[in-house]
Amino acid sequence: MVMTTNTITTANTHFHSHSHAHPAGRIDFAKAAPKVFRSLIGFDAAAREGLDPALVELIQIRASHLNHCAYCLHMHTNDARKAGESEDRLHMVAVWREARHFFSARECAALALTEAVTLVADGGVPDDVYAEAAAQFDEQELAHVLSLILTINTWNRIALSTGKVAGTDERK
C-alpha cells in the first residue's frame, strides 16, 4: 500500500492527511481544503493563547465526549497525559459535576460553558452558566475559552463527518 502524506505542521494540529485514516469515500479535509484547514489551525492556535494547557485539554476532552468524537477524544486524552494530567482527572471529566473536588472553580466553570455551547441547540447558553464563567475569567480569557470551545466543536465535526479513525493521530 502506498501511503500519501500531506502534513501541515503546528504544535497542536488536529489532522494529518494519511490515506489509511479515512474510510472509503470520505474526503481528506486537509488535502481537499488546505486554505480552510490552515485557517482553522490559526484559529485554534489563537484561541489557546494565554490559557492554561491543562484547561485547554479539559475543554477539548469534554466537548469530544459530548460530540462522541473518538478521534479527538483519543488525541486530547493522550495530549493531556503527555502534559502531566492525572488519570484520575481524565476519568472524571465526563462526570465532573459529581466529582467537582477533582477540578478548580475555573475548570468547573469552563466545563459547564463547554457543555452549554456544545449542546447549544438543547437550550442555549443559560445565563447562570455564562455568569459563572464570566466570574472566573476576565473578558479576554473568556473570549479565548469561548473560541477554544468553538474550535474543538469544529474539529469534532470535521473528524466525524470525514470518518477520522481514533488512534490514527500521526502528528509529529
Describe it for me?
It is a single chain. This protein has helices at residues 29-32, 34-48, 53-66, 70-82, 87-92, 105-118, 127-136, 139-161; strands at 5-6, 17-18. α3 (53-66) packs across α8. The chain has a two-stranded antiparallel sheet. The chain is mainly alpha-helical.
SSE topology sketch:
Layout: E1 5-6, E2 17-18, H1 29-32, H2 34-48, H3 53-66, H4 70-82, H5 87-92, H6 105-118, H7 127-136, H8 139-161
Antiparallel strand pairs: 1-2
Mean pLDDT: 87
Regions with little confidence, pLDDT below 50 for 5+ residues: 1-20
Tally of alpha and pi helices: 8
The secondary-structure class comes to mainly alpha
Please state the CA-atom Rg, rounded to the nearest Å. Answer: 16 Å
The description of the largest β-sheet is: 2 strands, antiparallel
Q: Tell me the span between the first and last alpha carbons.
A: 21 Å
β content, as a range?
Answer: under 5%
Percent helix: 55-70%
Number of strands: 2
> What order do the helices and strands follow?
EEHHHHHHHH
Shape: globular
Strand order in the largest sheet: 1-2
